[in-house]
Design a protein that fits this description.
By secondary structure, the protein is α+β, with helices and mostly antiparallel strands. It contains 21 helices and 29 strands. It folds into three domains: 132 residues, Gcn5-related N-acetyltransferase (GNAT) (Aminopeptidase); 163 residues, Aminopeptidase (3-Layer(aba) Sandwich), CATH 3.40.630; 257 residues, Gcn5-related N-acetyltransferase (GNAT) (Aminopeptidase, 3-Layer(aba) Sandwich).
Length: 584
């Protein structure tokens, strides 16, 4: 398993040591994109055998980018990628093994033609190669965009000439940090006029592009962006910015204009190309994402290069995951070796509660080395219910401990739960020392396990359900889970479930705060959640007012800063949640 590190704005020197001197013109490698889109992709990096490797999540799936070789310094002081630095097959297989260890089929994206040919030659028939047309990059020469020369760009020149005629006193300015508020205001006006990315009123400031842009502005001093803006009568009417990909290729990340100013888009495009340093021979204007209008517009500028990008998967990607019987058997044995429960209870649990879809496992060398199960529940708070998963049976093979396997297992669990709609996860640490470890993963002692009613062995589910729903805030047993717990109790007449401290983690910060706002409609505050290393989407600002929650990347005044663990403690402070019959 490869040890990856969360990428941050302060990693610029290290990352660009590889990318700027490389040959890949993929827009995904611009440092501005890597940082500003981390909230969506949860991007991490590692140096493996001298190559820079990125790992990230695309939706619910984990993926990798093509490894980047480290350039070598030449006698003249320049840097050059070694001539024999094609991505080695053994490195690709290391990534494949890392994916399996993390519980995902292997996916490599943004792959060039050269890499696909190399892999097919080295390992014929092993991989599927699919061109991702919606993600092909449109690359132009800087001179082409600056001059708009030639008959095929006559229309673009006409747009620019029209702008100059209508607004002869326009001014082009280099984009600086003090102009960012004007950019955000223009972006908001552009969004309203084009009615794009319309969302619910409480999320009106939230769209993926806006979040990315805001994060770029927040990290402006660290990511090395260059930009420009057009002004008419001292009012900003267009702006753009980007970041270098390589020493000769510049990535245009964002371009916005007031559409009421005719030709503003064409004009900011040309003026920015004119003012860009001449070292940049090429300008990458990124992909079209399959939008027909955007594709026509990008093609109309006649790209010098249409950068093809492929995704690579194994032809038998689920071989390691379809063998459910093996995975269950190995998970069960690992559970027995870790917890030493009775044979009767182990059989009850694995026959009644275990499900393949509930199991999260790490596999190394095609064997389960760590596993846990996520058992579905509902958390009821004063009549309101949200989804909560009970994390049970966390176990790591003895020889794999202290190698970050357990932390990776929990990370992938939290990520999966987020996309399943889970709001909270809860657990009961098996050993006292585990409280500190779980706390480092975002858990807080904000829930406790309590003893069930004295006559629980003879209760019907209807009677028990009435009791549990009468509690102020409780994790609700379902008929299925209650029956299993009751069966376990009846098999052990002299035992009961003890009252012990448990732990709780917020999986979805926005949904958790919505529950809090619903329960506290008069509460008004701004909250900033930070340092959630497992679910990047949670790291954002929230405004609570009149029982509603709005989230935004824009810094909010007087925001109370909370880690994900502190957020859980804050939300549960007055609720005192409890659980019982948790198989502990």
């Amino acid at each position: 398993m490869i040890k990856f590190t969360d990428i941050s704005a302060r990693d610029r020197e290290l990352i660009q040591r590889y990318t700027l001197h490389g040959t890949g013109r993929n827009c995904d490698l611009s440092f501005a994109n890597l940082i500003s889109w981390r909230f969506l992709y949860d991007t991490q990096y590692a140096i493996v055998d001298g190559y820079l490797v990125f790992r990230f999540y695309t939706g619910r799936h984990m993926a990798y980018m093509t490894p980047i070789p480290k350039p070598e310094i030449q006698p003249d002081g320049t840097y050059t990628v070694p001539s024999q630095s094609e991505c080695p097959v053994q490195l690709i297989m290391q990534l494949r093994d890392d994916a399996i260890a993390m519980g995902y089929p292997f996916l490599l994206i943004g792959v060039s033609n050269e890499i696909t040919r190399m892999l097919e030659q080295a390992m014929p028939g092993k991989f599927n190669y699919r061109p991702e047309r919606n993600y092909f990059d449109y690359i132009y020469t800087r001179e082409q965009l600056a001059t708009l020369a030639g008959k095929h760009l006559q229309g673009k020149r006409n747009h620019c000439n029209k702008f100059r005629k209508l607004y002869p006193d326009y001014e082009y300015r280099e984009l600086t940090k003090d102009m960012i508020p004007e950019c955000l205001q223009l972006e908001q006006e552009w969004r309203q006029s084009t009615k794009q990315d319309v969302e619910a009123a409480e999320d009106s400031e939230l769209s993926e592009e806006l979040r990315s842009m805001t994060r770029a502005f927040i990290n402006w001093d660290y990511i090395g962006c260059l930009g420009g803006a057009l002004y008419v009568n001292s009012q900003m009417v267009a702006f753009t910015y980007g970041c270098p990909i390589t020493a000769d290729t510049f990535d245009v990340c964002v371009e916005k204009a007031d559409v009421s100013y005719e030709g503003a888009f064409s004009m900011i495009n040309q003026e920015f190309a004119r003012h860009l340093p001449e070292q940049y021979v090429y300008m990458n204007r990124e992909e079209d994402l399959g939008e027909e209008g955007l594709r026509r517009a990008k093609l109309s500028y006649k790209p010098a290069i249409l950068l093809e990008k492929y995704s690579i998967t194994e032809k038998e990607p689920l071989r390691q995951f379809e063998d459910e019987a093996r995975i269950k058997s190995e998970t069960r044995q690992l559970y027995i070796d870790t917890f030493h429960d009775s044979e009767e209870f182990t059989e009850l649990y694995f026959s009644r509660m275990y499900r393949s879809e509930r199991n999260v496992a790490c596999q190394i060398d095609n064997h389960v080395c760590a596993a846990l199960q996520t058992l579905p529940y509902q958390l009821q708070c004063n009549g309101h219910e949200v989804k909560a998963d009970y994390i049970y049976g966390v176990c790591v093979q003895q020889s794999m401990r202290r190698q970050n396997v357990g932390s990776n297992l929990m990370k992938q669990t939290h990520h999966r739960l987020y996309y399943r709609g889970t709001v909270f996860s809860v657990l009961i640490p098996a050993e006292p020392w585990l409280f500190d470890w779980y706390a480092s993963l975002g858990y807080t002692q904000a829930i406790r396990s309590v003893a069930p009613p004295d006559n629980v062995r003879n209760m019907s589910y209807r009677e028990f359900d009435a009791w549990q729903r009468a509690q102020n805030c409780m994790l609700l047993q379902s008929p299925e889970s209650f029956d299993v717990a009751q069966t376990d109790l009846k098999a052990c007449p002299g035992e009961t479930y003890p009252a012990v401290p448990g732990m709780l983690r917020v999986i979805n910060a926005c949904a958790a705060l919505r529950l809090y706002a619903t329960l506290n409609p008069d509460f008004t505050a701004n909250i900033r959640v930070y340092n959630d290393k497992d679910v990047a989407e949670n790291n954002i600002y929230f405004a609570l007012e009149h029982g509603k929650v709005m989230r935004t990347d824009r810094p909010l005044p007087n925001a109370r800063a909370l880690t994900i663990g502190e957020l859980g403690a804050f939300i549960m402070a007055g609720l005192h949640p409890v659980m019982t019959l948790m198989l502990n």
